[in-house]
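[#protein-structures] MJ: dropping Carbon-nitrogen family hydrolase here for a structure pass
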Amino acid sequence: MRASLIQLDVDPDEPVEARRVRAAGLVREQSGSDLVVLPELWTVGAFSYDSFAAEAEPLDGPTARIMSEAARDARVWLHAGSVVERAPGAGGDGTPDDRRDLYNTALFFSPDGELVHAYRKIHRFGFDRGEAALMSAGAEPATVPLPTTTLGLATCYDLRFPELFRALTDAGAKTLVVCAGWPARRAAHWSLLARARAVENQAYVLACGTAGTHAGVPQAGRSVIVDPWGETLAEAEDAGERVVTAELDPAYVDTVRADFPVLRDRVLR
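AK: finished. structure tokens for Carbon-nitrogen family hydrolase:
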């Protein structure tokens, strides 16, 4: 299975509509891949809090429509990163009550362009500010069965919570996909945590971040694909826009888990 991570540049001077078209074009260029992943909140910027309410959209909004078409044209499974979702029935005036109906929601499409899953981010970043104050939290871990593997979905700050990834593993995930807008200041944490989640769950980790700077926050980039033994298969060396691609062997997860069966020795659950 070939996986490609698109480390997309989120340039605040680029109109959102233009970035949607450009991102869709990049997805179509990966037609030789089986799975393509985009980063978190690439339409608005993960730290552009003041724009969340204005850029919020429903699950069948403009980003979903153009990503559906791109997945269908490229014939790929597409993790389209995440959008600011406005829940059905919510208003649009940006008031505090209205903002409780916003979610950081990852969109996942089949090669037929069908939206097969929407994962609402469980762990919101910002403590008492930012995303944590402006958005509601998702409640359910998300797994998506593919013909060759089962994906577990996570978003950015989720990466710091190993219990979520263990829940995904318990639910059958063998490939863990993380979309992110991770800041450069904590780039070392990003790389370390991606490898840790792979090693402790004996699973592939595909971690895709944004490039560039948005809302004054330089991004880490360094999108990475890690195998179940913790070896890095491919990694972006910097925070520039680029595509990171690697070949995955889904059977290797079972091999690692059988040869070194640490998961069966768990005591606390």
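MJ: nice. The two ends are 31 Å apart (CA to CA).
AK: one more thing. The mean pLDDT is 95.
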